[in-house]
Amino acid sequence: MTILVTGGLGYIGSHTVVELLQNNFQVIIVDDMSNSEKFILDNIEKVAGKRPVFFPFDLKRKELLSQVFDAYEIDGCINFAAYKAVGESQEKPLDYYENNLFSLINVLQEFKTRNISNFIFSSSCTVYGQADEMPIDENTPLKLPESSYGKTKQMGEEILKDFATAYKKKVSLLRYFNPIGSHPTALLGELPIGVPNNLVPYVTQTASGIREKLSVWGNDYPTADGTAIRDYIYVVDLAKAHVKALQKLLNETSETVIDIYNLGTGKGSSVLEVVNAFEIANDVKVPYQICERRAGDITVAYANADKAEKELGWKAETSLEEALRTTWEWQKYLVNRG
Ligand code: UFG
């Protein structure tokens, strides 16, 4: 089976490529390198013992994409290629809509024309907004996300539902909670460009001395310690869920399938709990200061991931501390690389 992985050199993409290769899938990566580096491809090979086929281009370039489909018999796609910075999406909404939706539609057009099924879409728990009840299961009503980034995820889901229904295709929409951590080999991990927006990369860079202090955005939330709560899911666990979701689609006998799964641990952790867990796991200090709330942040989000366990036989296995240990090992690897 040959699987196209768009954005396969990115954070979640690279970990998923390794899992696919280790499960004997052939992998073709298309990635424009806008948020990755070439050494990630070499490191995928080091970890998996196989080198995926790689094409460096922007998926908006339809003619190049078509040539890939001409050259390889593709059986399915996992679509990671997207811009993902919430704040930036508010400043550059058109870039987000253009990049995230046109690239998706271009791949789907190829699937339609060439009669290919099996499409997995990287979605996000952002589609739920601030849900009224916890934990969040797949029947929790969707709310319009505040950010243009979040809207591209919700629109992407709608596009895929229509695609599956109209053309009789199998699709899986995977709603990630907060992915963290790095590969246990310390050869793959997140490469934040500039100042990180997300909590764990910022904590890591603070512990490393690159940042002076972590700003904890608000301690007046209605939670036990006043800081906001999220469901932090280890990236390798998340990557494994993609393989399970793909195998399920491949085994489905129905022509039309629209699967939706929440991928989280089911456990919420506050910002201060993450900071403490990082300090304990790695025996380092993370200086922090309490600041005003960040605009657009919700109070609490954690998953009910029972559906994924029941239907995919998948559940998160790695503890927060263990995930945070891998993050620190990756940071040391990056520092040594220079
Ligand atoms: N936080 C801090 N300080 C920081 C960074 C984050 O206190 O320097 C806090 C945030 O306020 C939030 C928590 O840490 O309470 C997690 O923040 P992240 O930015 O790591 O993650 P978010 O939950 O805001 O965003 C994530 C994904 C988005 C996705 C969103 C859906 O990064 O892609 O979940 O809710 F859209």
Largest β-sheet summary: 7 strands, parallel
Number of helices: 11
Strand content: 15-25%
Number of β-strand runs? 13
Order of strands across the biggest sheet? 3-2-1-4-5-6-11
What sort of overall outline do the alpha carbons produce when their principal axes are compared?
globular
CATH architecture descriptor text of the domain at 2-177 and 234-264 and 304-316: 3-Layer(aba) Sandwich
CATH superfamily of the domain at 2-177 and 234-264 and 304-316: NAD(P)-binding Rossmann-like Domain
Query: Alpha-carbon distance between the termini?
Result: 38 Å
CATH class of the domain at 2-177 and 234-264 and 304-316: Alpha Beta
- SSE string, helix = H, strand = E? EHEHEHEHHEHEEHEEEHEEHEHH
Binned, the helix content reads 40-55%
Bound molecules: uridine-5'-diphosphate-4-deoxy-4-fluoro-alpha-D-galactose
Indicate the radius of gyration in whole angstroms. 19 Å
Pairing-aware structural class of the strands and helices?
alpha/beta
Q: Oligomeric form of this entry?
A: single chain
Mean pLDDT: 97
- Low-confidence regions: none
Say what the CATH topology of the domain at 2-177 and 234-264 and 304-316 is.
Answer: Rossmann fold
